[in-house]
Amino acid sequence: MNVFERVESEVRSYCRGWPTVFRTAEGSTVTDESGRVYLDFFAGAGALNYGHNNPVLKLRLLHYLVADSIVHSLDAHTVAKRDFLEAFTEIVLAPRGLEYKIQFPGPSGTNAVEAALKLARKYTGRQTVVTFTNAFHGMTLGSLAVTGNSMKRGGAGVPLGHTVTMPYDNYLDGQTPDFMLFERMLQDGGSGLDKPAAVIVETVQGEGGLNAARPEWLRGLADLCRRHDMLLIVDDVQMGCGRTGPFFSFEEAGIVPDIVCLSKSLSGYGLPMAITLLRPELDVWEPGEHNGTFRGFNPAFVTATAALRFWTDDELDKSTRAKGEQVRRALADLADHLGDAVTGLRGRGLAQGIAFADPSVAGRVCAEAFERGLLMETSGPDGEVAKLLPPLTITDRELTQGLEILADSVTAALNLQPA
Is the pTM of this model over 0.85? Predict the structure, then answer.
């Protein structure tokens, strides 16, 4: 028995599907201690949009650390934080006409969500938050309360309340009434629905099965929130920072959320960092009312600022959209040969997947992919989706190679004859 099995908690998960010990990583590849190279279609669950050890970000980080620059600062003013705030405002917010205040709630996505939920309740004086089927927003108690997955919710060990779940776009296979049920319940004093403080939504449900909401559905949701005085929170933790093309995944819908949660690829280097964006009039916090020891991790500010160089023009956006189209064509070609074994294609941009009628197939596909040198994971409430989440900076050759490995892995998982 190795040290991981002997000492580490049984809660470990990804390592069970990837039974090796990794040593180094560069760009879109990861190498284990035996020297075997794996192509990465996982990208740190979306935390490595710019690839492993991006050289520009790495150089900035090394220079910062060698200079004995401050690393830990809570919420004290630092040069690194100032540089990030100025760059983020100039490069991301101002060109989009967004005037958000920026809160540093702690180091991870669930911290950003918890801050958003607390703020919405504090500002409105209401308790209920509306979430959607198959949502995933994090593993702390507030975030779990707005998460749909029963296994993850069950791990809380306490009741998870003050939330109401509504059907996500296309939840009923095209028959979902566009907010008719939701609005009727808001208007009916006998529905049992207390007036919500906020609605929280993912534009693409990363962990819930790569369900992608239509732009018109998102616009309808934003309009409903305005008309009924509910705050709209967009959780862009996994789909933000360019995963679907534009920097924010909600840009395509043309909506402006009241609150936005960002993390994962925000630091650009895999360093922990999260922010909660909020309309200025919502900033009703008392000093210290919401805090965290590691909300001032300056090395992450440094790499986050460096990563914003990718957003000074629209080249990465265009590239991601083009690569996303390549992925969609490859998945469609694959699905055409599989018939009823496939129930649909999911996702958008470089967050896509293929859903199988037999949920166990997706897990077998990922296992076969690992044996062939490709790292993937599953998604969905039953793990029925084989999920592709490569770095946005993946080369055309690497992307093509990975898609070919995927096709071979599906053939093997279904015991089919090679085409």
Answer: yes
